[in-house]
Structures are given as C-alpha cells and as structure tokens.
Task: structure prediction
Amino acid sequence: MPQTRIKTVLPQLVILLIGGAIGALYGQILVGLLIASLGLLGWHSMQLFRLERWLRTGEIIKLPDGNGIWPRAFARIQYITERASRNRNNWRSLIKELRTSAKAFPDGGIILNSNHEIINYNKAARRMLGLKKKRDRGQRIDNLIRNPVFVSYLESDETRDGVDIPGLAGEDSWLSCRMIPYGPGQRLLLIRDITQRIKLERVRSDFVANASHELRTPLTVISGYLDALADDDQLPDAWAGPIKDMCQQAERMNLLVDDLLELSRLESSEPGSMETSVDVVELLRFLQKEILVIDEHPETIELRLDSQAKLLGEEAEIQSIAANLVFNAVRYTAPDGRVSIRWHVDDRGGHLTVEDTGMGIAPEDIPRVTERFFRADSGRDRRRGGTGLGLAIVKHALKRHDGELEIASSLGEGSKFVCHFPRSRLIVDE
Ligand code: ADP
Result:
C-alpha cells in the first residue's frame, strides 16, 4: 500500500481501536466503536466544509497540517490555483505588450470579418481614418472608405498588390491599403501613410519634366546647325565624320528628351476620357509599313490579325505601346531573324503580342526591363540606339488602359511581349 494511504488509514484505525478499547472497559465495545466512527465522520465533514468554503470564497485561514489525505488535497489545490493565477498574469502581460506594440505601430491595422465589417483596429488606423469606437465597430469598411478603387479591391478578394488612394484627412494626403488573410474568414487591412513618398515622386517627376522641357530649345538649335553643316558641300572632308557623329548624338538626345517628356506626362497626368475607339488593326498595319520603310534590316515582319476588335483608349498611347514593342523586337533581332505581331481576342480580353527570334533576355533581367534606363546589357543596348525608356513607357501607358504586360524570354532564342487589355476596353463588332 502506498505511503499516503497507510498514513491516512492507520491513524483512523488507531482511533477506532482506542474507541473500541474504551468501550470494552465499560463492556460496550460497539458503542465505543460507534462514538469513534462518529468522531471521525465529524472531522472529515469539517474538512469538506472548509474545502467547499475555500473554493467558494477563495479564503483560507490556515492549511491543515500533517501528512494525511486532507493536508495533501488542500496543498495540491493551492498549488493548482497558484499556477493558474501565475499563467493568467503571464497572459495578461503578454496581451498588454501586444496591445502596446500595436499602438506603437506606425501603420494602421484593421481586422475585418468576411462581410468587410470592422472587428478591431489599432491607434494608427483610428488616426488615419478618424475612427470612433462606438460608431465604427461593426461598420462595413466600404461605408468609411468609399473610394471606387478601394471598393473594387475589397470586393476582388485580391491580396497580392495593394492600392493607393487619396487619404480621408485632406487634399494632399495619400494612403496605401493592403489586405492580408487573417484567421478564419477574417482579413487584416494594413494602411500606410504614403503622402511623403507621393510628394517626393511628384517633385522628381516635375524636375525631370522641367529639365527635359528646358533642354528641348537648345537641342533644337544645335541639331539645326549640325544638319545645316552636314548638308554643306564646302565642309572639309576631315569634318564630315565628326559632324555625322554629332548629328547622330543630337538625334539620340532628342529621342531621350521626347521619351522623358512622354513618361512624365503618362505618370503625372490623369487619364483623359480614354473613350476614343482605336482601330488596332489599322494601327498595326501602318506600323508594319513604317518599320519596313525606316528599318535597314530585312527581318521578316509577320502580321497576324485574328480580330477586328477596336480598343477604347487614347490612340497616341496605344500607338506608343505597339511602336515601342515592335521597334525593340526589330532592334534586338538579327537581320535573318523573324518578328511577328498578333492581335487577338478571347474570353479574358484583347491581346497584342510581339514576338521575336532575337537575342532574348536573361531570366534575372526580365523583372527589371520595365525600369527606367535599365538595360539588360548596357554596352550592347546603347550601341543599338535605344533610350532605355521604351518599356517604362509601355508599362505606364498600359496601366492607364487597365492593361498588363507579360514578358517571356530566353537568352539566344527570342522574346515574347504580350499586352493584355480587359474585355471592358474592347469594342467587338458582331
Ligand atoms: P531600350 O531603349 O534600351 O531598348 P527599353 O526600355 O525599350 O529600352 O528596353 C529595356 C531593355 O530591355 C533593353 O535595353 C533590352 O536590354 C531589353 N529588351 C527590350 N526588348 C527586347 C527584345 N525584344 N529582345 C531582347 N531584349 C529586349
């Protein structure tokens, strides 16, 4: 028998024996045993009452001493209660720390349920959106942020890229909103104040636009004199080469200034009505003819027009998208290579594909080719006469038409650039 049981049972047997012995002295063993049993029962009941009172009120004056079952039971319960209280305190301080760090977090965080209703938010979110606890908890977030770009982002269940929207605080404030899946059916809306970044971008873009504009007049004068000199029959032979080089460089600078101005315009101006019906088929046919006239390389330029659908947009911008892609394809393809242009429509929308069998782009460079002045191979590409801005222009112009650029390429085999336009931008004649 384990020690505890012996220590519990033995004293009780001794008490019963003593009760029985005293009873025997008076010739009443049973009465002696009964009185001893009643005494034991009373003592156990008293311990039970103490235990019940302790559990009910949490008050205990003194724990029972000794090694029997009751002192051990009391000690065990006291240990469990103290451990639970220690755990509770740990959790409390953890929650407090989390709350403090959420408060200190400079970005706004709002927890939304599956109906886009606000469950909770931090201090930064309260400040950025002017939220009020009683009024706004349980409100749908699109009742507070009514910007259409945000509303369609919210409804799209899209979590990859966020959206930038004007802030609620005032004219020049901007917020970046991003949704992150969070718990079952919930989403965390992260809001960042990007006013400063937008301001800096504007300053940079204005500077580039102004500088390019200022460069234009002197460049025109220089180009004019250089052209006149190049056409002068009396020019000494030794000058012919340098003047030709200067003419080429002046032409390159002119192209650069044009592209810089075009990019600034695309970045800074609001998309216009973008409702002109642009005849893509006619535009591509014209482009093909233009290239065959301008370009010295006899690459095969193949045109596949699988649809007569027109595009709703800005003609000059769509022209610029197609021209940049086609001129690049010609520029980066050897004279015996092939360039193909295709326009087709399917369930997802309209697709303009420009494919070549040229030198291709290394996989690590593909994500960067739409950056300004990025060149996959700077020496090689500069000699080919590009400005380094063509694909940046394509990306921005496409964005203004709700389109996307897809690039697939492998070194030495060729490249494929596809512009995807949504169905909402198509005019398809039945
Ligand atoms: P660039 O004026 O230098 O052509 P772009 O912005 O049009 O500038 O293109 C950026 C870079 O992407 C180019 O310098 C070139 O390295 C690469 N690139 C673009 N189009 C092609 C293509 N069709 N084939 C191979 N490389 C290309």
